[in-house]
Design a protein that fits this description.
Length: 429
């Protein structure tokens, strides 16, 4: 196993240490590069840059593998549940029955939010995008829970972690209810995480809400599929915000803001809007041509991935879940699903998509599933944020507890003006 690499710069040779992970690519440790050579590295999209060491999630993009603490996502999604996956991501091991009971008890009893939060919402317009409300309300948690913002205190870090996992669904459901003009529904301690979320979103005071176990199971599985994903854009945002010592609520709010982008978590909303715009199978060739046209900014939303150059393992499970939900609800011949399945088949056999290794990602089928569950399109990324909160918190906690942790402060390649002197306005041409 090679343990070093050599960088030749003119007559000077610099030795760089290689570090080896459990699985996945080795890394060249360049921490001393600038000190030893006066050089920076340049990698604007971080396509070849490891920003940290982590033990939480591993993706093999070529093989289409996603592991959480070593466990494959398909096994966790099909044989476990979201709250168990939360425990695994936070603590590193699957819980015993007793550990799961205690964790579930703690999360359940943190699901309520301070009653003043309900008045916080009334400051928003009713038609505000729910993601804007989430950025605001999650950030506002640090104004209500000062007793768990001292990041140097392990107990407060865990309390803040549990609070985030427990309260994000409540805040998300409140954002939805506020958006549609219905009264907020309090969490219920007798329901599971996914049942409670569906109840808070779809129950109304006038009649009992019947939990559909098939739909609750699908919701739980969708949460598991979105829980964590290595150092994606929003997780990197949370880590960078946290590296300055900012409180966890503010860091998660930063992650939600980043997730909102259509290139990232906003793709599920954009993918469904795209399917609706395509409208019917006979218009697919027109959109495929646009996706290939270099002069057209249009992209097939829900396709492609920075890491997966093979099928996104989450997309397969999401497609199965989509069919389960549509079958349970008796939705036959959903036009959007028909367009999606035809689009997928055409794209998977098109030389452009094959050459660029563009496969459906987790966002391709999630929109159809969430729409069938009863959520409006603008709530899709909110649900992604609810699920990803545990991944953000686990990664934030790992960073804070890393003894080598320092504030993140990238450098740059400067190509602006060299130093020049100020000229008074009358002397400017
Ligand atoms: C998520 O990082 C994560 O892990 C994210 C995520 C998570 O769980 O956290 O998995 C969640 O964000 C999934 C991705 C959701 N986004 C989308 O579905 C939006 C559509 N996809 C693209 O915008 C794009 O594929 C990205 C953003 C996902 C990846 O972009 P990259 O890695 O920077 O790739 P690129 O933009 O450089 O594209 C490479 C080539 C380009 O062509 P060339 O310039 O080389 O000729 O592929 C083309 C692109 O034009 N391409 C597409 C395309 N995606 C890439 N062409 C048409 N349609 C697409 N969707």
């Amino acid at each position: 196993m090679t343990d070093s690499a050599k960088l030749s710069l003119g007559a000077k040779e610099t030795e760089l240490k290689l570090r080896h992970g459990t699985i996945g690519p080795d890394v060249v440790d360049i921490a001393a590069l600038y000190k030893d050579t006066g050089l920076f590295t340049y990698d604007p999209g971080f396509t070849s840059t490891a920003s940290c060491e982590s033990k939480i999630t591993f993706i093999d993009g070529d093989e289409g593998v996603l592991l959480h603490r070593g466990y494959p996502i398909d096994q966790l999604a099909e044989r476990g549940n979201f709250l168990e996956t939360c425990y695994l991501l936070l603590y590193g091991e699957l819980p015993t029955a007793a550990e799961m009971g205690d964790f579930s008890y703690r999360v359940t009893r943190h699901t309520m939010v301070h009653e003043q939060m309900s008045r916080f919402y009334t400051g928003f317009r009713r038609d505000a995008h729910p993601m804007a409300v989430m950025v605001g309300s999650v950030g506002a948690l640090s104004a209500f829970y000062h007793d768990s913002t001292d990041i140097a205190d392990p107990h407060q870090r865990m309390v803040a972690s549990i609070r985030m996992i427990a309260k994000t669904p409540t805040l998300a459901a409140m954002a939805y209810k506020y958006h549609i003009g219905q009264p907020f529904v309090y969490p219920r301690n007798d329901l599971s995480y996914a049942e409670n979320f569906l109840h808070m979103c779809f129950a109304v005071p006038c009649e009992p809400y019947q939990i559909n176990p098939v739909l609750a199971r699908a919701m739980d599985r969708i949460f598991t599929l979105h829980a964590d994903h290595e150092q994606n854009a929003s997780t990197s945002t949370v880590r960078l915000a946290g590296s300055s010592g900012a409180n966890p609520f503010a860091c998660i709010a930063a992650g939600i803001a980043c997730l909102w982008g259509p290139a990232h978590g906003g793709a599920n909303e954009a993918a469904l809007n795209m399917l609706a715009e395509i409208g019917s199978k006979d218009r697919i060739p027109e959109f495929i041509a646009r996706a290939k046209d270099k002069n057209d900014p249009f992209r097939l939303m829900g396709f492609g991935h920075r890491v997966y150059k093979n099928y996104d393992p989450r997309a397969k499970i999401m497609q199965q879940t989509c069919h389960e939900v549509l079958t349970e609800l008796g939705i036959k011949d959903d036009p959007l699903l028909e367009v999606a399945m035809e689009l997928e088949q055409i794209a998977l056999h098109d030389p452009y998509f094959i050459e660029k290794k563009l496969y459906p990602n987790v966002d391709f089928y999630s929109g159809i599933t969430l729409k069938a569950l009863g959520f409006p399109t603008e709530m899709f990324t909110v649900l992604f944020a609810v699920a990803r909160t545990v991944g953000w918190i686990a990664q934030w906690k790992e960073m804070i507890e890393d003894p080598h942790q320092r504030i993140g402060r990238p450098r740059q390649l400067y190509t602006g003006a060299a130093q020049r002197d100020y000229t008074p306005v009358e002397a400017r041409g």
